[in-house]
Design a protein that fits this description.
mainly beta, Tick-borne Encephalitis virus Glycoprotein, domain 1, 3 domains, 33 strands, 15% helix, rod-shaped
């Protein structure tokens, strides 16, 4: 091996250690970057002149950068519901302002002024819309990123729930006189969320028998403005000799004990017609209407509870994201519903992904094509809200590598200095 070979090997060593130091520097700089995956310098020997072991050869070195894309960072808590971390395999599908698709583990998402979920680097989280049953709103589950949409919460301005069920638990006094009547006001919400009041009028018509009729609804806010037309009564309510509900029969003689229905048509608010099934108890039981003597033997009715399942218009009060990627919203009225499904992209060789700035990746021939999966399904990881995946950089390890790189660089520089001295000696001998 000649002096020129030694010089060449030393120069290659300087370049290799410079590359290694650059990688170490980049790792340390990103030690606090959310979702960052540390890189490593991979060294390989370079044989410039192949030969036998007795003849010798010029031995150099080459370097390449390996990014540990599949390494798992620590999951740390955060105070934002839309801050997301993946525990296991998979990548969030995101898009930039130009509509290009990328993949990332940086889940520091928050809503922008348009209501889109976007991370700190400006990449928008993708998923697909769900209906109230938790199924795909389009009827099909997307298998391509082109079928995904940006998750937007600004469109979810609120919700109203029309009343479809009501229940009454009360004691109609057995010691009331025939002809006595009692009224129970039931709040009813139409499909637009407006509150109305319908009065259920109970009149005693015989021993152990009562008649129920419904008033037309009025606005709950003023109690006088009629807002629709009620139908469904009168109903005949009978009790047995033990005071328990025996039957509820409509005007046509049909037993409607389990399906007593109030209908309201012609809402002045413009809402669609309402159908309300009222649960007034089970025949032969005392879980609804009963008939016993009044508490103070004054012939008064005792009302225990009136419930219904409707609600007025309400704004979003809370956002929750489950481990399987379902984005749900809870409204001020307590109603909750799923609205979006977050998907994860899975790759056969994620370490082969091509890295870009802002901790995002694109697929390559080495990584293979993506497969969209629900978090927790098919080997993908689960999602945690109020969490972030930290950088995989261990600064202690990086400092150790930096010392090794510095020593190797100094040694290679010393080889160059020694080679220079030997050249000087050679030249002076010739002269």
């Amino acid at each position: 091996m000649s002096l020129s070979s030694a010089l060449n090997s030393a120069v290659l060593g300087l370049n290799a250690q410079s590359t290694s130091l650059g990688i170490i520097s980049g790792n340390i700089a990103n030690s606090e970057t959310v979702g960052y995956k540390d890189s490593t310098a991979a060294f390989s020997s370079l044989v410039t002149t192949p030969g036998s072991t007795t003849q010798g050869y010029s031995n150099g070195v080459t370097t390449s950068t390996l990014t540990n894309v599949t390494s798992q960072g620590l999951i740390e808590s955060d105070n934002t519901a839309t801050s997301l971390a993946i525990s296991g395999d998979g990548y969030f599908v995101v898009t930039d302002g130009n509509g290009d698709t990328y993949y990332t583990r940086a889940g520091d998402f928050s809503t922008d002024s348009d209501g889109d979920l976007v991370n700190s680097s400006g990449y928008y989280l993708m998923g697909y819309a769900l209906n109230s049953d938790g199924d795909s709103a389009s009827g099909t589950v997307p298998t391509s990123t082109s079928a995904l949409s940006t998750i937007n919460l600004d469109e979810l301005t609120g919700t109203a729930e029309a009343t479809s069920e009501a229940s009454i638990v009360a004691n109609l006094p057995a010691d009331a006189d025939i002809g006595d009547s009692f009224a129970i006001d039931v709040e009813i919400f139409d499909s637009l969320g407006t509150s109305h009041t319908v009065t259920y009028n109970f009149s005693k018509t015989a021993a152990n028998e009562w008649e129920l009729d419904y008033s037309d609804p009025v606005l709950t806010s003023d109690g006088t403005t009629v807002t629709g037309t009620s139908a469904g009564g009168p109903l005949t309510i009978s009790f047995d000799s033990d005071g328990q509900l025996d039957s509820i029969v409509d005007g046509g003689g049909t037993d409607v004990t389990d399906s007593a229905t109030l209908t309201v048509t012609g809402w002045t608010t413009g809402a669609s017609d309402s159908t309300v099934v009222t649960d007034m108890g089970t025949a032969g039981d005392n879980d609804g209407l009963v008939q016993y003597a009044s508490d103070d033997e004054d012939g008064d009715m005792t009302l225990y509870s009136v419930d219904q399942n409707g609600s007025n218009f309400s704004e979003i009060s809370e956002i929750a994201i489950s481990g399987d990627g379902v984005v749900s919203v809870t409204y001020e009225n307590g109603e909750s519903e799923p609205v979006y499904q977050i998907v994860l992209a899975d790759f056969a060789n994620a370490d082969g992904l091509t890295g870009y700035s802002d901790t995002v990746f694109k697929e390559s021939n080495t990584s293979g094509s993506y497969v969209l999966k629900t978090p927790g399904d098919g080997g993908t990881g689960t999602i945690s809200d109020y969490s972030l995946e930290s950088s995989t950089v261990d600064t202690t390890t990086q400092f150790s590598k930096m010392i090794v790189a510095q020593q190797a660089y100094s040694a290679a520089a010393q080889v160059i200095s020694t080679t220079s001295d030997m050249y000087d000696t050679l030249i002076s001998s010739v002269n």
